[in-house]
Amino acid sequence: MMIALTNFRLLRYYRSVYVTCKHLYNKRNVYYVKFSTESDKKAGSEVVTFSDGKILQFSTGKYARFADGCAVTTLGDTSVMVTAVCQHSTYQSTTSSFLPLVVDYRQKAAAAGRIPTNFLRRELGPSEHEILTSRVIDRSIRPLFPEGFYFNTQIICNMLAVDGMNDPDVIAINGASAALSISDIPWNGPVGAVRIGMIDNEVIVNPTRRQIQDSMLNLIITATKQNLIIMLEGSANEISEPYLKKAIKWGVKECQNIVTAITKLQKTCGKLKRKIETTEQQEDDNLKSSVKELSEGKLQDIFSNHTHDKISRDMAVNDLRNCVIETLRNNDADLDVKLAEKIFGKIVKDVFRTLILEKDVRCDGRSPSDLRDISCQVDLFNPLHGSAVFQRGQTQVMCTVTLDSLESALKMDTTSMLISGIKEKNFFLHYEFPPYATNETGNSTRVGRRELGHGALAEKALRPILPKAYPFTVRLTSEVLESNGSSSMATVCGGSLALLDAGVPISSAAAGVAFGLVTKYNDKHIEDYKILTDILGIEDYLGDMDFKIAGTKGGFTAFQVDIKIPGIPLKIIMECIDKTTTAKWEIIKIMNEVIRAPRQTKKDKMPVVDNLEISIYQRGKFLGVGGMNLKKIFLETGVHIYPYDENTYSIFAPNEDAMTEAKEMIEDILQKNREPVLEFGAIYTARIVEIREVGVMVTLYSNMIPALLLNSQLDQRKIHHPSALGLEVGQEIQVKYFGRDPVSGQIRISRKVLQPPTSVTKTLHRDDAKKT
């Protein structure tokens, strides 16, 4: 688009707003300016056909054309629109050391054909599922941004339509990949993502929601070209090692088709990537050599001193950094301190990694395949239903188990319920990471994205070992008391011990371990690498991978791979899985020495559950007016009673004494003014206590609840109101008892059957008339 401007200030405004605007020429004081508009952006689409026939479609150029990149991705009838926007700036501060990437995935109730059920009837803050999905998308795209790119970037995933069969999370990952690829934002993609399921040992690509419920595997794989893995996230029902490897290989292969399609879309509709100046380009070679000369040798000594722990090692590095900065400042008063600190951080990383690659020894003295020292303890405090402490090196986690009634199950919000098919969860895990765990200060009540992500991973790892039909809701809390790496996997180990201590009949103990990776690059290819078992916090921070994997002796239950480099070959992932089996068995062996099977002897404070059958005709007396009897029992004993089926009520008591007390109260309620036993077919004298339009209310005994005698059972003749027979309150009539209704439990009585047939009645009436 071309615009003629006569005002030079207006021209400068356009240049400041539209970075792509370009001054062409000046003729007679008229400035001709060209800049990108909606009509200049190309529209196009690409289609991916998976091996099972499912079709994934990409389209761009139709919506949100002010964004740097926008793509709509569709699978089945589920569509997600993803936009990518990066700040337009030609200068970047040297103080930046972290990519400020924000991914917002939002579930829209309208996309699922629903209205939000909150008070305002609109979408409010992000739900836990939205936050977890945003994390998965972030981890899938973050490693491919160029090194030194620290510009504010935002990815927004907007659900347009949901069919209830195809989950939008994987669709959103592919949409983010397409939006970044066609934008002018520097990004070394594209990537492709698929969900892999497995039913009857057969791999299913992008299974539907119903298929996932029957699948033993739920795995999301993100990969880029040349079969390089970027991200793994999933859970399984104790899947064996060969089948897990098969699923990963299959998923990576399917991702290549998506990468190819997005590449074609980028060639036809993509923009030219913008040129940026990173901090690496701004670094001073002289400053780098000075910092390296002052720090490299001392850093080698620090990382080779195996007596250091987390705190002392960090303090030694910090003291050395301060000393180096002070020395440089004395030599140069105009020193750029922030840039010098950044260079020092890179040297720390290089020295740390080089020692591992060359000497095959880690900073704490372990070999790459060694585990840290492990200790654990259960039954910490008597009032707790289940408790355990798991210590691995300097990572310490305390887990507690609380059992409650099924009414305390976690209810899902409406939109998440429609998308996932899960209405409520009777097992959930809450992970807490207070600041004192790393010798810091901060907000101890905040639950961030990291806490939600680690808790969800540990929950996935433990859910498969829980019994399917368990009469309690289980809440497992994990509080990290000390942290030096892999606290989420320590939560799996501690949570398994706490469940056993609580007597929960889990199928087997579960354990988790994290693997790291240190690589040496040569021309963007991995020349050498070391896989590290049971990584420390510093090995996670300065390494290239964090592969968390958990399972039992029978197989794997959860896995999560975070990668910091632009992809890892399948070979390395397979090696990590091989090493996991050995590490997992060693950890479970140590755990079994503390507790091997679920606790059989119940603690004094353990809750109990029982069922109580109440006849239909006794239901009103049992419940009381407005459920008053149940409320009274709950307030006095803490026992919760709720309907289980048509004639059965479930009783949840916090302990055995409360159960006994509640049952005594229930017995008193049912015994009080107990009705006499009526004989089927017997005739009784009933007293009318109320006259209604449909009949009369009568009592056979003074202590009985009034029963309804319908108009149809009052007389042989058809009447519409009891007043036609001259019946009054207090009058006594003869009725015959026919038992109780099997559905409503109401007494069935009749006055009509005791009267002579209608023809005889009419004759008697005629005789009475003649006599008169």
From TrEMBL:
EC class name: transferase
GO biological process: mitochondrial mRNA catabolic process; mitochondrial RNA 3'-end processing
Keyword Cell membrane among UniProt keywords: no
SUPFAM superfamilies in alphabetical order: Eukaryotic type KH-domain (KH-domain type I), Nucleic acid-binding proteins, Ribonuclease PH domain 2-like, Ribosomal protein S5 domain 2-like
A molecular-function term among this protein's GO annotations: 3'-5'-RNA exonuclease activity
Superkingdom of the source species: Eukaryota
Annotated ranges, domain S1 motif: 681-752
Keyword list, A-Z: Cytoplasm, Nucleotidyltransferase, RNA-binding, Transferase
GO cellular component terms, A-Z: cytosol; mitochondrion
Coiled-coil residue windows: none
Key word ATP-binding present: no
EC number: 2.7.7.8
Family to which the UniProt record says this protein belongs: Belongs to the polyribonucleotide nucleotidyltransferase family.
NCBIfam families: polynuc_phos, PRK11824.1
Protein name: polyribonucleotide nucleotidyltransferase
Annotated source species: Atta cephalotes
UniProt lineage: Eukaryota, Metazoa, Ecdysozoa, Arthropoda, Hexapoda
The encoding gene: 105621871
